[in-house]
Design goal:
- The protein is 26% helix and 20% strand.
- With 300 residues, the chain is an alpha/beta fold.
- The chain has a single domain, classed as Rossmann fold.
- Helix 3 links the parallel strand 2 and strand 3.
- Bound molecules: S-adenosylmethionine.
- The site of S-adenosylmethionine has 21 residues, from helix 1.
Length: 300
């Protein structure tokens, strides 16, 4: 749907990627001898276990392509909030990070954490995908850095209460998790009072438009209010990729229900000199409608 995935049809190997050991085989990647009658794309309800399993499997299978296609833009130790390239070094949404314990959720290859490490923070990078975290190790080895990584579902954080000063995600977990409200509660639990929780995700308005970077992507074709998950499934009808939509109002209520105070909602504009196309994000659409929403929250 409104995905930040790699275009798997045309992705060269990056140096070092093909040298990584294979990730553990995920259950849904096994056995593809089923009839093809249920394969395809659907808007349907999907259980939490099926959704998380699909997410882990999909990102394990596609992490190499994602990093090969987007690694240059992301940078090895750079912190961008989304395809518009808003850089945390300029935006300062997390505030002062020096000496702070910071949890990055849905970290991918932990490029953002590595940028914070260089500014004196003490980051921990968490992701559901083992393969994504292998890419973090690969980059660390090239840079002489050592970002601590944890493989877990963001809706069940394996940390004690009140251990982090700050938490954030750049497009990780929330679009893919069936339990956005649970993620908010977990982040609230692991943060110290006064801590910030800053998260970016696909701007909810994008769900009303086709995921097309051209003019076709500027005509509303779907109800913004329909929160039925977007599901890609195999021949057995098992989800292989899932995205979850919440309206802006629903996200605000998730934030408030978890106990956070929302202090800003940033909608980065597309820079006039940025020519890249990333999935459905492009100069053509970026000039007209927001592509990213960044919520800045405080745990009082
Ligand atoms: C679009 S990528 C963003 C990665 C990174 N933040 C970046 O900007 O490149 C989404 C990431 O979220 C992770 N993810 C998806 N569902 C998750 C979950 N339930 N818990 C933790 N991470 C999750 C994926 O494995 C993937 O690495």
């Amino acid at each position: 749907m409104n995905d930040l995935r790699a275009d798997a049809s045309d992705t060269p190997d990056s140096p070092g990627i093909s040298d990584l050991p294979d990730p553990p085989q995920s259950s849904s990647a096994a056995g593809h001898d089923a009839a093809e009658d249920e394969a395809g794309v659907a808007r349907r309800e999907v259980g939490a276990a099926e959704s998380v399993r699909a997410g882990r499997s999909w990102w394990d299978d596609n992490a190499d392509e994602y990093q090969a296609e987007h690694g240059d833009f992301l940078g090895d130790a750079r912190f961008v909030w989304g395809p518009e390239g808003l850089d945390e070094q300029q935006a300062g949404l997390l505030g002062d990070v020096a000496g702070r314990t910071v949890l990055e959720i849905g970290a991918g290859a932990a490029q953002c954490s590595r940028a914070l490490l260089a500014r004196g923070a003490r980051p921990v990078a968490l992701d559901l995908s083992y393969r994504q975290l292998q890419h973090s190790r690969r980059i660390d080895e090239g840079h002489g850095t050592d970002v601590p990584v944890v493989q877990a579902d963001a809706a069940a954080l394996p940390f004690g209460d009140g251990v982090f000063d700050l938490a954030f995600t750049a497009y990780g977990a929330l679009n893919f998790s069936p339990d956005g409200a649970g993620i908010m509660r977990e982040v609230h639990r692991v943060l110290k009072p006064g801590g910030r929780w800053v998260f970016s995700l696909t701007h909810p308005i994008r769900w009303a438009f086709p995921d097309d970077p051209g003019e076709e992507g500027l005509t509303v074709t779907h109800s913004y209010f329909d929160t039925t998950p977007y599901v890609e499934q195999d021949g057995r009808g098992q989800a292989t990729y899932v995205e979850h939509h919440r309206t802006l109002g629903m996200r605000v209520r998730e934030v408030a229900a978890a106990g956070f105070r929302l202090v800003d909602l940033v909608e980065p504009e597309w820079p006039a000199d940025l020519l890249q196309v990333w999935g459905g994000w492009s100069p053509t659409r970026g000039r007209m409608i927001p592509g990213t929403a960044i919520f800045v929250c405080v745990r009082d």
